[in-house]
Amino acid sequence: MTRLNKISVSIIAVLTTLGMSSVANAATKNPHSVGVQLSGGSAEYKNSKQDGGGVGQLYFHYNYAFSDIWSVEVGLNAAAEADKWKCTDSKDKFVCEKENNKLFNLNADKLNYSNIVVAGKGQYALTKRNSLYGKLGVQFYDYDIKNAKTTIAEDDGLGLFAEAGWQYKWDNGLALNAGLQTMKMGDLKVSGSTIGLKYHF
């Protein structure tokens, strides 16, 4: 399957999911939500964990709740390897320099990836405002590992998306969440912690 066909399949899956949600009869008061989430963690490539300063992610998502327990989520994620800095204090001068650590035992210094996510979400209420949640789904990924402008490795395809955590919701529709997330992208695996904010309407 070509890269264009994979993108088409992902788009069709997203449109089908949104179409199903538009005709569903949700049992919850505010079935829609949009949110943004920041993540930080580590990456493994072919079992090598030498990922420089780790990775940072920015994730935007839309969520439709079919009930107070079950919902579906569609999201877009963008990420890159986080730079590591070394700072020294010398003679009234504070100097910080970027450490160019090589990634994954390769002659590489950059990692970038993006993901289109479609996942199911379940939640369990602990109190009126507190709940535990879990997400499980698929993501279409596209990544590259580079040294300056030279590509060392790249891949795209479908992989696993999973997340679990805790969330707190206020009466005004805002909600805060924190959790643990993992994504499997062929030979690349990313795991880390997340914190996010979303709005229900």
Structure characteristics:
201 residues, mainly beta, Porin
What does this protein structure show overall?
This protein has 201 residues and is mainly beta. It has a single domain, classed as Porin, CATH 2.40.160. It contains one helix and ten strands; from the N terminus they run αββββββββββ. The protein has an eight-stranded antiparallel barrel. Strands 4-5 form a two-stranded antiparallel ribbon. The two termini are 38 Å apart. About 5% of the residues have low confidence.
Summarize the structure.
Helix content is 10%, strand content 65%. It has 201 residues and is mainly beta.
Number of helices: 1
Main beta sheet strand tally, sense and closure = 8 strands, antiparallel, barrel
User: What's the SSE pattern?
Assistant: HEEEEEEEEEE
Q: What is the end-to-end distance? A: 38 Å
Oligomer: single chain
Poorly predicted runs: 18-27
- Give the total of beta strands: 10
Radius of gyration: 19 Å
Rough shape?
A: globular
